[in-house]
Request: fold
Amino acid sequence: MKKPIGIFDSGVGGLTVYRAIRNAFPEEDLVYFGDTARVPYGPKSPNTIIEYSVQNARFLLQQGIKTLIVACNTSSSVAIPHLRELTDIPIIGVIDPGSEVAVRSSQSGRIGVIGTEGTIRSGAYSKAITLRNPQAEVFTKPCPLFVPIVEEGWQDHSIARQVVEEYLGSMKDLSIDTLVLGCTHYPLLSHVIQSYMGDSVKLVDSADAITLHLSSLLPPEHDGKPGKDSFYVSDNEDKFASIASRILNNPMKNLKRVRLFESWFID
Ligand code: DGL
Reply:
């Protein structure tokens, strides 16, 4: 009997992580939870983010998962030690794998990090990067408007380019050679960010970084059967399904809503 890998995010953006894991592990069963009732996490306080993350993890643990992936950067930046108190299964957040890849990729040690207000305020990426390279100089910038632009499907709209220029103008003058996309939604804007920052800046996508890390941890399932997917959200299934089908280039199947009660149950 295969046990699934659990993935949670504040909403739909974590599907960038789901997509990378699904491609790398075609035979694994995956269960995804998006907390669409309480998104966004980015502007919320650390205590609230921890409380929500613990509830999300509890729900996935009830589904019998063998590994927990915290796709949400904002949750990963504050909640991982609290989640470790719930279970002995491996828990992987995006901060350490993303920082590892950034430090390996940077020649100059000048590394930019962009993310939600919560992620940047936590200082988690700066800590994780300088732990790995004490000489590194880390420059951070919250970019809160990137999330609604992606959710609106405006990645190729001129507004996306304007907002990227506005947020990253100061970053562009800092001679960084690596930029961590420290938020689930940002890989969906990577073409705009890359074209603005130029080819000399390497973008680090936390979805790829976490998949690489997972590969080193997990012996792959080899039973010849394609992995199954289950998706759960806490609200607005239709909106989730419509954005999800854009991200995944496929209509969303096996999507259910769970109710936010003390003991969670599937609708
Ligand atoms: N998933 C969040 C993250 O990666 C972005 C959206 C939110 O603010 O909840 O930080």
Summary: The chain has a mean pLDDT of 94. The chain has two domains: 5-93+210-257, 95-206. The chain has twelve helices and eleven strands. The domain at 5-93+210-257 is CATH 3.40.50.1860 (Rossmann fold).
